[in-house]
Amino acid sequence: MTDMETEYRITRLNNEYVQCIDEDRLEEWPGFFVEDSKYVIFPRENYEAGLEGYWMYCASGAMMRDRVKALREVNVYNIHYDRHLLSNVVVQGEEDGVYDVRSNYAVVQTDVEGRCHMFSTGQYRDKVVRENGEFKFKEKIVIVDSFNIDRPLAIPF
Amino acid sequence: MLDQPNGSGQLVWPTDDFTRTPYEVYASEEIFAREQQKLFDAPTWVFMGLECELKEAGDYLTGTIGTTPIVLSKADDGQIHGFVNKCAHRGAKVVRELRGNAKFLKCLYHGWTYDNRGDLKAVPMQNGVMGDGGYPDDFNPENHCLRKLKVANFSGVLFASLDLNAPPFEDYLGPNLGERVKTICHSPLKIWGYQRQTMDCNWKLFMENTRDIYHAPMLHAFIPQFGMFNPAKQKNELILEHGGAHSGFFTYETEDAAAPPPANQKKMQGPAGDGGKKLVFEDPSVARGVGELPNGLYLNIISIFPASLFTCVGNAFTIRQVRPIAPDKTETVYVWFQFENDSEEMHDRRTKQSNLFGPAGYVAMEDAEVMESTQQMIARGLESGSTFMEMGGRDVQMSGSHGVTETSLRGFWQAYCKYMDIPTPSAAAAE
Questions:
Q1: How far apart are CA A86 and CA A107, in angstroms?
Q2: Which of these, B82, B84, B282, B423, is most buried using a 10 Å CB contact count?
């Protein structure tokens, strides 16, 4: 059983993570991870088939910063707002200082004319570690239930 | 606007060349229905999957040819059979999973059960129950199999046709592009995963985009800014086949890879481009392949009529099935592959480069946005108007050495009109 303060801080890490994305502070997004980390968006179809086949694959902090750079400087995508709904943050356990954390997410997207639709839903499977007293993601695997996507996937989940 | 002279119901293309496409073909329900019949329930071929997805007897995968749901399955004879996923009894969907393994395929509704060849093997209550009911004595299950397809295995890539009299796939594809597919599939393939994206656009807008090389450096700013567009050190090759139906665009890195970008690069990209600006990545390996194919060949885009696409760039290899759903809705299913004999290093490299394509692709995410916004404009202009495609001339050139041309689009429409039985004005007048 994880102590309450750790549970609280890990939940808060996740809350701040989605808030950072929703507020379009993408430059801060890689900072939620330790440098030697992994972030992937993984369609559930592939996960269940025992395959890889990611939508987005970052094997390091560098690849996350590169993704943000490309989004800011060159990529063009639908004009929209994202709103993450995060729930059920559960610390499953801890081993050698690595916390195994799961939570549910949904992203509701609102388009340039103000219409919203459910864009994506799935589960975060995280490995969280402590670095200089701060909790950070060592790994974030986004398993996407809604694996048939209906808009460009520009902004990380 | 497509003409119907004298109220004959005969459609006529608006021009004698294929530099114009009437917008209504992207929006009309009637055209969409005609396409299902003339292009898909027709002697054409559509990509279905990879041979390596069907390893064991009983393995199956699903897909569509046009709007028709399809199953491909490996039978105990080791052969891959294809059939329509629609029960011969009352039309229910037989296979409900996307893929799997089953010795028999059983319809949920009344339990009609088929084998992996699509032959009907069991019919519950066929002979009645306690003397009641049952099918007439002349009921013969052999007459009620699932509708069978023609299946082709080309270098480990599976294609299917709804027309049992379709020409052999290699003849349909043609020798020049056939050689290119063999070059890409250079050793045994290994499935890496799937991606599905549904867009609010007509399927032909998507297929045109696969042949439209002109747009790439403008729409996908990643390409020039990352240094992937550099005519001074690249050699291009354009190959059309089957009357322009299929198109292949290939880029080779020449020996002079160190040559500086041309001074007029900015001009080539148009006002939105900035030839001097550079996107510098901390980890550039995401977009830099190592030489894998002969002669410096590193970019292969092969668009096979009507609805299949190879995108094999650097070390990221994927094939797509394009699924028309409605005039304004299209699903694309990417099948990504690597190779059995890849080293771990190569596996990692390919995995990183997968970031280039797909819904989040560095050089692809813009396509969905432009397809959808174009469809919206086209639907609003349903009654009139046409596209304009005279880049590189007005005729269909069957080969070329650059992408600054729309010949591949003109070729698509030439083939489209042929399969759709839509004559040009001159041909209609001569009839």
A1: 9
A2: B82
Q: What is the pLDDT of residues A66-83, one digit of tens each?
A: 999 999 999 999 999 999
Question: Are A54 and B99 inside 8 Å of each other by CB?
Answer: no
Q: How many CB atoms lie within 10 A of CB B404?
A: 13
Return the CATH fold of A4-144: Nuclear Transport Factor 2; Chain: A, (3.10.450)
Q: Output the pTM of the full model.
A: 0.94
| Mutation for A interface: B61, B281, B321, most A CBs within 10 A | B281
Answer whether the bond into residue B306 is a cis peptide, omega within 30°.
yes
Q: In chain B, what are the domains? A: 48-152 (2.102.10.10), 174-420 (3.90.380.10)
pLDDT, one tens digit per residue, over B7-66 is 666 789 999 999 999 999 999 999 999 999 999 999 999 999 999 999 999 999 999 999
The ipTM (two decimal places) reads 0.96
Domain edges within chain A: 4-144
**Residue B189 Cα, gap to closest chain A Cα (Å):** 14
Cβ contacts (< 8 Å) between B331 and chain A: which residues?
148
Q: Are B338 and B186 in contact (CB under 8 A)?
A: no
